[in-house]
Amino acid sequence: MTEVNSPPDGPKPGGWTRFVTARPRLSLLVALVLTALAVFAGSGVEKRLGAGGWEDPAAQSTHATKALAREFPGSQPNLLLLVDSGRASVDDRAVAAEAARLTARLADERGVTGIGSYWQTQSPQLRAKDGHQALIAARITGDDTTAGETLDRIAPALRGEHGPVRVSVGGPVAVRHEIQTTIQEDLVRAETIALPITLVLLVMVFGSAVAALLPLGIGIVAILGTNAVLRGLTEFTDVSVFALNLTTALGLGLAIDYALFIVRRFREELATGAEPLAAVGTTLRTAGRTVLFSALTVAVSLAAMMVFPQYFLRSFAYAGIAVVLLAAGAALILLPAALALLGHRVNALDLRRLLRRGAPRRTSPGTGWARVASLVMRRAPVFALATTVGLVLLGLPFLGVKFGTADDRQLPTTAESHIVQQHIRDGFPGSPGGGLDILAEGRATRAQYADYRKRLAGLPGVTRVDGPLVKGHAAYFTVLPKGEAVDQGTQHLVREVRATHAPFRTSVTGTAAVLVDSQHAIGERLPWAAGIIVVVTLLLVFLLTGSVLIPVQAVVLNALSLTAMFGAVVWVFQEGHLSGVLDFTSTGDIETTLPVLMFCVAFGLSMDYGVFLLSRIKEEYDHTGDHPHAVRYGLQRTGGLITAAAVILAVVMVAIGTSRVTNTKMLGLGIALAVLMDAMIVRSLLVPAVMRLTGRATWWAPGPLRRFHERFGISEGEPAPAPVAAKPREPQPVP
């Protein structure tokens, strides 16, 4: 059995080391029990998650939507039945009779209200231009979960062949439900793809199958724990189904990052001759501190999304913070206990041994990265300018970004609800779904309603005004715009309608109105979110390094590393390049909340890698006082590790990016690109070049801040004597 006690003359383990290694078997047993409970607690979480959340709950459009659904359910249908009469006309007597039977059947269903059809109203908007299709509209009541259950209950009996007609089910409730179902199926496929590939990559990194399984186990614990947290949150607030994808990606990615860093440092200590318990203690005092620090920076970036009112963004903050803390906690509690038990057996089952037979054995790790660092620092101005210009050029397409709302085109073209909505877009008059609904509240006379309607009809960009439909002291109008549902002209029309004088209180809703309100909410709070991220990042990096310049560099270079992601998002998903290869439908715009989400997640992950590199540079600089050597040594010791972690995380994100839902595809592929650009370009080339240009001034801080850091700062390395007298260290080979 591996000895887990330090020898009498060895260094005494610190308090945290004693805590996590005192009873390692008990710690792992408790973790196993808690994980099993998390599986039970988190089961069925996907069924309780919503597929919406893009609107501001305090916005005028949200108030109007809820009030109209309550007072005039027919004005806000979320279920559409597309009735196709084939070669016959929808006005054929047999078709009309069958449509009447379907309408009556729908009216008998509980949870369904506001039922209307072309055959009842003879509205031209509900009849296709070719006369072979028409619509039955209704509203399913309740929240996303309740509405989805109702749809599952009634849809099988409605869709399909009914005498002379064929019925397809669509509408917003069907779109949301199909998005939710598709994401659940895609997530299982993504995990099936990511887990075996990740295990192979970990074996390639570590060689040892035992060492490779440890990060994967930590990732699984983090994912299962976060699912349980999300299940608990659904009891108190709305949570987006899209958050499940982030849980999987960050759970695997960050847990693997943290475990890679800790296991690698533990093996380094073993290679120097340290006993297992002493190696665990040193690992926790060094790499463990960096992991804790890194987790805080990622959590802060994700927490910034909580300033936004849309539950789509807030859900990612909930899921992200939970998975980051669980990943870090598992890496700092369970992993040390496992390492203490394994000891030197962490290097067991070296699967690369066969590949090394007959090949020359490297005597020093990271030699290639040392050469890269030396080359970059010799030509620092060239590398700094070239990489900066290249990243800026890659980001230029984002200057042409257009914002829109998510709709059925998020789904694959074979999805039933997408097919229905596409038929409506292509074959029905008057831009169905693009109208503006106006709720009028308060006492008013017929003359006042007529005067208000006349004012609306006189606005530029208005095709016609329908209504009012009056009920008590409330009424609603529908304004049909000349343009598309969410183009710039329709968004301007929303503002014009809201500015139109009325002798009663008015609220405007509709697709364009929701978009205008969402953009306003994000624009109003974006400076606060950015400020939180920047200020806390500056503070945390200062506490890590004691430098004034390095935190500023970290923020600027991190932001620069994201330019390629934003440029690619516009070039690919907005402009539609590669849409055939990636199998998605381009809408010509980007959903408003996606850039915010992608920035927060990618910025946090970039800081994750930045902390790994800076902590090792800082540790070496504290020991030697040699700035160029410290930069070269830091890249030599972490370059391969950061690249391996980035590749593994990119694999997970690409697996998420195989989703059939466009927003999820964009999120996965975009962040994968950002992570790879950050690890392979920014950390490998731009950071060492910039640090070489700034020289020893990199570490400067004014006296008061220097004293503050000496008292409250956190460093990965142990305190060292006068650094200028120390000798640069050469890395030891790691098994």
From TrEMBL:
- Show the stretches that span the lipid bilayer: 26-45, 199-230, 242-263, 291-312, 318-343, 380-399, 528-550, 555-574, 594-614, 641-661, 667-686
Its placement in the membrane is given as: Multi-pass membrane protein
Gene3D superfamilies in UniProt: Multidrug efflux transporter AcrB transmembrane domain (1.20.1640.10)
Identify the domain of life: Bacteria
Q: Which Pfam families match?
A: MMPL
Give the span(s) annotated as Disordered. 716-735
Cite the InterPro entries for this sequence. Answer: MMPL_dom, Mycobact_MmpL
The record places domain Membrane transport protein MMPL at 55-379, 472-702
Decide whether keyword DNA repair is in the record. no
UniProt KW Cell membrane keyword: yes
Q: Where in the cell is it found?
A: Cell membrane
Q: Which UniProt keywords apply?
A: Cell membrane, Membrane, Transmembrane, Transmembrane helix
Please tell me where this protein is predominantly located.
Answer: membrane
Q: Which GO terms describe its cellular component?
A: plasma membrane
- Record's PANTHER family? MEMBRANE PROTEIN MJ1562-RELATED (PTHR33406), MEMBRANE PROTEIN SCO6666-RELATED (PTHR33406:SF11)
Q: Which family does it belong to?
A: Belongs to the resistance-nodulation-cell division (RND) (TC 2.A.6) family. MmpL subfamily.
Protein name as catalogued? Transporter
